[in-house]
């Protein structure tokens, strides 16, 4: 829902994604991993949406050894919180953090210098979400089919996040119109 909301509120991104879909996805054909691997802008849209609307409020880990963070010694067995929406809004990691800009994730963009560990919507390492690949595939396939067939609009107040163990939308007032 947050991806659709971001596309509805950013019609230029939606149009760019639609053009990529038209170019890469054959009409009426199944979508395999070879097709998905060519959908660079789609992946950028999803990453940018996770940046703007994190799925979870934070990632936390208990340190297994002493480390130094920003000059502070942090002892083993300390629980460390990485607050996703704070990191995602820092201009030192994301220039113009208030702007929805999927292009920042494209490797061919010379201005792209995103640090990979500033966005971990599924966690990382041995405790990474076991359903990550399935969730990403379903998200990509759903977005392709929706944007391929409909222009996504929005009516009413902007969507907000509510914490229900994971962040969820507080409303949906989408306006879908068929593409011709």
End-to-end span in angstroms?
23 Å
CATH domain topology: Cytochrome p450
CATH architecture verdict: Orthogonal Bundle
Average residue-wise pLDDT: 91
State the CATH superfamily name: Cytochrome P450
| Global morphology | globular
* Coarse structural class: alpha+beta
Rg estimate, integer Å: 18 Å
Helix content: 25-40%
Quaternary structure classification? single chain
Q: Would you identify the regions where 5 or more consecutive residues have pLDDT less than 50?
A: none
Number of domains: 1
Q: Which band does the percent of strand residues land in?
A: 15-25%
CATH class call: Mainly Alpha
Order of helices and strands: HHHHEEEEHHEEEE
Number of strands: 8
Helical run tally: 6
Largest sheet: 2 strands, antiparallel
Strand order of the largest sheet: 1-4
Give a description of the structure.
Belongs to the cytochrome P450 family. Keywords: Heme, Iron, Metal-binding, Monooxygenase, Oxidoreductase. Heme binds at residue 129. Pfam families: p450. The structure is a single chain. 34% of the residues lie in helices and 19% in strands. The protein is α+β, with helices and mostly antiparallel strands. It has a single domain (2-54, 85-178), classed as Orthogonal Bundle (Cytochrome p450). The strands form four sheets. The protein has a two-stranded antiparallel sheet with strand order 1-4. A two-stranded antiparallel ribbon has the order 2-3. Strands 5-8 form a two-stranded antiparallel ribbon. The protein is globular.
């Amino acid at each position: 829902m947050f991806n659709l909301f971001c596309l509805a509120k950013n019609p230029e991104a939606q149009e760019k994604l639609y053009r990529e879909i038209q170019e890469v996805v054959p009409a009426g054909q199944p979508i395999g991993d070879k097709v998905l691997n060519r959908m660079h802008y789609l992946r950028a849209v999803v990453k940018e949406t996770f940046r703007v609307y994190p799925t979870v409020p934070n990632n936390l880990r208990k340190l297994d050894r002493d480390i130094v963070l920003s000059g502070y010694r942090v002892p083993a067995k300390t629980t460390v919180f990485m607050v996703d929406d704070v990191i995602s809004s820092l201009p030192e990691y994301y220039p113009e953090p208030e702007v929805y800009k999927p292009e920042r994730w494209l490797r061919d963009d010379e201005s792209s210098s995103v640090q990979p560990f500033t966005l971990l919507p599924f966690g990382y390492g041995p405790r990474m979400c076991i359903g990550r690949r399935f969730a990403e595939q379903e998200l990509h396939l759903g977005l392709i089919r929706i944007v391929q067939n409909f222009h996504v609009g929005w009516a009413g107040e902007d969507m907000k996040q509510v914490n229900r163990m994971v962040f969820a939308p507080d409303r949906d007032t989408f306006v879908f119109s068929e593409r011709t």
